[in-house]
Amino acid sequence: MGMRLELNTMIVTKNREVRQEENQFLLEKEGYRLYPLDIPIELKKTMTGEASGQAVVKKVIWEGNKTFLTYQLVSLNSTN
Amino acid sequence: MGMRLELNTMIVTKNREVRQEENQFLLEKEGYRLYPLDIPIELKKTMTGEASGQAVVKKVIWEGNKTFLTYQLVSLNSTN
Amino acid sequence: MGMRLELNTMIVTKNREVRQEENQFLLEKEGYRLYPLDIPIELKKTMTGEASGQAVVKKVIWEGNKTFLTYQLVSLNSTN
Amino acid sequence: MGMRLELNTMIVTKNREVRQEENQFLLEKEGYRLYPLDIPIELKKTMTGEASGQAVVKKVIWEGNKTFLTYQLVSLNSTN
Question: Would you say the pTM of this structure is higher than 0.80?
């Protein structure tokens, strides 16, 4: 008996992020997911797509088999 | 460069827990600490002491290099 | 896309451990499982049974979606 | 009391990798480090440098407060 979790090395938003402030977003994910905090990681819209930028996770909440992620966008890839 | 964390298999309160409800408590810890959620684990007052009971972690918040733990006491060891 | 793992706070042998030395055992588990190393944790024969003793994980190998655990038995509960 | 570990989202070689096969390498790191297995992650020579390619971790060994990492190089960034 243990706790299932998923180790994630990037943020995949699937366009479900909610803007909280200028460059801060909240994202809800199913299950308990482990993301590195306070470190720039890649931000993607879809799992298989290109990185749309870099973000830093500032806060993680685990509760009721869900993960609530607060991240700040630190850079945007130009896509012209 | 990575994220430092500490894997914990029990809750050590050092009498710093704050009662929120009948059997629910909040505990603040330094650093990012990984506790299993939704699984009974041992509850201790001090690291080297006997278990005072069993608790289930219901919520974990990681932010600003701190861990905020919400747990429910599920059983108390008798110590008479 | 992430890596699934299971956080374990005790060792459940299901009698599948293989003795390597006097008090050292090897145990193979399905999936990637995270156990604390170098810390005494409970050892059980079955998930729901009583702890049969305490063990210290000395080595963990993750490969091919399996976990290979080397642990030392540090104390046995008397069960008379 | 817990187990300290470091969550890593990329491999930083510092030129200490040892080639084992055509595109397979072994790397020894201090401390217990958690890397995602079986998923392409960035490979760098130095922490602050550019990614030199992508690699997939195939095996991780934790023992004696060291991490032994076996990874396969899956793509190389051209740097001309």
Answer: yes
